[in-house]
Amino acid sequence: MDIASIIGSLLTAVGLVIGLILGHAQLNIYLEPGSFFITVIGSFGAMMTTHPIERILLIPTFLRIVYRAIRNEEEKIISHLVTFSEKARRDGLLALEDDLDSIEDPFFRKGIQLVVDGTDPEIIKMILYTELNKIEERHEGSYLLFDDWGKTAPAFGMIGTLMGLIAMLRHLEDKTAIGYGMSQALLTTLYGAILAYGYFLPWKRKLENKGRGESLVKEILIEGVLSIQAGDNPRILEEKLYTFLPPARREGLRDEMTKT
Fold first, then answer.
1. Residues 6 or more apart whose Cβ sits within 8 Å of residue 142
2. Left, alpha or beta for 145 (phi > 0: left; psi -120 to 50: alpha)?
C-alpha cells in the first residue's frame, strides 16, 4: 500500500472533522443531501460527459493505483541489463533467447526479442518509443479525468451557491427559508472545495508521479536494449544507465554491483 497516499487522504478527512470539533460545531449541520447531489453528482455528470465510458469505468482501477505501492526497481532493471550485455558480448545476441521466458516485464521482453530477431536498431527504437508514447497517452487520460473533476466540483459548488441565494432571496419574509437557502449556498461551495483540493487534484498529481516513474523505467529499458544490440561495453552501458538515477542511488547501485 502507498502509505503516503493513505495517510494523506485520512489526514484530510480527520483534519476537517477535528477542526469542526475544536470549533464546537455540530457535525450534522454539514450534512445536506441537496448540496451533496448538486456538487458530487452534478460534477460527476459533467465530467462523464467529456470522457469515454471506458475511461469512466476505470476509475476504481485508477484509485487502486493511487493507493497501491508501486516499486519500479530501477536498480534491479539496470543490473539485469548489464548482465544481459555481458552475456551478449560473451556468447552473442542469440544467446539471450534462453532468458526471454524469465523476463516478467512485457516491454522488456519485447525489446530483447527484437534484438534476438536481428531487427534494425532504428526500427527497434521506433517500436519501443511508439509503445512508450501510447502508454503515456493512456496515462494522460486518467490525469485529465481527475483534473476535469477537480475543476467541475468547485464550479458546481458555485452553482449550488447561486441556487441557494436565489431560494433565499425569493423568501426574504420567511426566516426559516433564508437560513436554509444560505446554508445550502455555503455548503455546496464547501463540498466542491473539499472534493477538488482534498481528493481529486491530489489523486491526479499522484497518478502523474507514478506515471513519470513508469516512463523512466521504460526509457532505461530502451537505452539498455539499444546498447546491448550495439555491442556496447557492459561497463559503459552501466555508466550510461546510471545517469537516469539520482546521485545517491547511483552510489548505492555501484556498491551493490561491486559486491556481486
1. 55, 58, 62, 65, 207
2. alpha
The rounded distance, in Å, linking the Cα atoms of 98 and 113 is 10
Domain ranges of the chain: 3-71+129-203
- pLDDT exceeds cutoff 90 at 91: no
**How far, in Å, CA of 103 to CA of 126, rounded?**
21
DSSP designation for 96:
G
Chain segment 161-214, per-residue pLDDT in tens? 888 788 777 777 766 667 666 777 788 888 999 999 999 999 999 999 999 989
Alpha carbons 136 and 79: distance in angstroms, whole number: 25
- Number of separate helices (H) and strands (E) present in the chain: 12, 0
Query: What is the SS3 assignment for 117?
Result: coil
Asked if residues 55 and 142 have their Cβ atoms less than 8 Å apart, the reply is yes
By the 8 A CB rule, do 229 and 117 touch? Answer: no
Three-state secondary-structure class, residue 157: helix
φ and ψ of 130, to 5 deg: -65, -45
Q: Is the pLDDT of residue 221 over 60?
A: yes
Q: How far apart are CA 20 and CA 9, in angstroms?
A: 17
Please name the residues in contact with 122: beta carbons below 8 A apart, sequence gap of 6 or more.
none
Please choose, from the candidates 193, 190, 184, the residue with its C-alpha nearest in 3D space to the C-alpha of residue 160: 184
